[in-house]
Design goal:
Number of helices: 2
Helix content: 10-25%
Distance between the termini: 17 Å
Length: 138
């Protein structure tokens, strides 16, 4: 089943609040092999942790018809207003900027706005997702 092009322009509800802790920053640094940074300031790619919750909402949307195991990241970039730091409580709200089909795959351009509980913009996470539809058996 193809992703419905009507999803283009859809903004999903904000995710549940996510608290950035020193432990989460430390675990992320360990996962990416960064042994030089402090546990109080998150690496520039840490917002993917928050944005992934918004991506999961997209996958669960009835018009999306997507399965995580069929998704490949075509592109990911972050535009930050400031780094995430321990103590921040943030949410992400995903908007689907474009949907198109090419080569038997659905290509979605998304944007997740990450803001603090007080409404301060921290980061915009842009992603291009390539979703390959399940092929019929035969």
């Amino acid at each position: 089943m193809a992703v419905d092009p009507a999803l283009s322009g859809l903004t999903l509800p904000a995710t549940e609040p996510y608290e950035i802790t020193r432990t989460k920053i430390r675990e992320f640094r360990q996962a990416i092999g960064d042994t030089t940074g402090a546990d109080t300031k998150a690496p520039p790619t840490f917002p993917i942790v928050v944005a992934f919750s918004a991506l999961q909402q997209l996958m669960a949307h009835p018009l999306a018809g997507m399965s995580l195991h069929r998704v490949v990241h075509g592109d990911q970039r972050f535009v930050q207003s400031r780094p995430l730091t321990a103590g921040d409580v943030v949410t992400a709200q995903l908007t689907i900027d474009a949907v198109r089909q090419a080569g038997g795959a659905d290509i979605l351009k998304t944007r997740s706005e990450i803001v603090t509980a007080g409404g301060e913009h921290v980061c915009t996470a842009h992603a291009t997702l390539v979703h390959q539809a399940e092929q019929p058996a035969g």
